[in-house]
Amino acid sequence: MAARQREGSADGLYVAAEAAHNAKSHNHNDVGNFVVFANGQPALIDVGVETYSAKTFSARRYEIWTMQSAYHNCPTIGGVMQSAGRQFQATEVSYHGDDSAAEIAMNIERAYPPEAKLKSWRRNVRLDRTKKEIEIRDRYALQQAVGDITLTLMTPCKPRVAAGELLLQPAGVKVLFDGATLHAVTEEIKLDDARLQKSWGDVLYRVLFKCDKPPLEADWRMRIVLV
């Protein structure tokens, strides 16, 4: 899905999301990933790929950090990331779009191996043109308890975390979240690859929204708005 706030214009919010499988060409193990632009500026991103090497197209491909779901805007469950292969896929995929909103819904449970202990993970990505916001809704159910769940957001903007909100400048975007449930920490990723530097400069940021000892079921929402 790709949708923008205003047809034919970069003004306002733009979101793109995918519900696919992890055996597609140039796969990154990123089922359920999404990106957000604000007034034409990148806010939440897909990092892309480093300069190609023999490792990129070898059995060790998924040792490369840019190919891992933990470095995409995806969940990590009890330290378990998505796996590669055609069987690791989104299911129950649906889309609806009209003048007021565009939304894609999916179950990404099968993108993860059994070690993730998932019954289901339903992700909805919705651009509400009336409210001028993007909502990311994650509803999950676990087979058994896991130590933690982490939601990752990748950004080229230096993040500033306050109570229940994440400010991304210069994109001019605020991410609103449940600060009582999710604890946000940021990591700085220094880039030394020429291909990535050409896109993003010398540094990217990884924001981790972590829930320790999560309940067996939960319904989490993040709202993305312009500042």
Q: Can you give a write-up of this model?
A:
With 227 residues, this protein is mainly beta. It has 1 helix and 18 strands. The strands form 4 sheets. Strands 8-9-10-11-18-15-14-13 form an 8-stranded antiparallel β-sheet, with no helix packed on it. A 4-stranded antiparallel β-sheet has the order 1-2-4-5, with no helix packed on it. The longest helix has 7 residues, at 194-200. The radius of gyration is 17 Å and the shape is globular.
Report the major sheet. Answer: 8 strands, antiparallel
Return the CATH architecture: Distorted Sandwich
Any idea what the radius of gyration is? 17 Å
Order of helices and strands: EEEEEEEEEEEEEEEEHEE
**What's the number of domains?**
1
In DSSP terms, counting alpha (H) and pi (I) runs of 4 or more, how many helices?
1
> Structural class, please?
mainly beta
User: Percent helix among the residues?
Assistant: under 10%
Q: What is the CATH fold-level name?
A: Beta-galactosidase, Chain A, domain 5
- CATH class equals Mainly Beta
Residue fraction in strands: over 45%
Shape: globular
Please count the beta strands (DSSP E, at least 2 residues each). 18
Span from first to last CA? Answer: 24 Å
Query: Within the largest sheet, what's the order of strands?
Result: 8-9-10-11-18-15-14-13
Average predicted confidence as pLDDT: 95
Low-confidence stretches: none
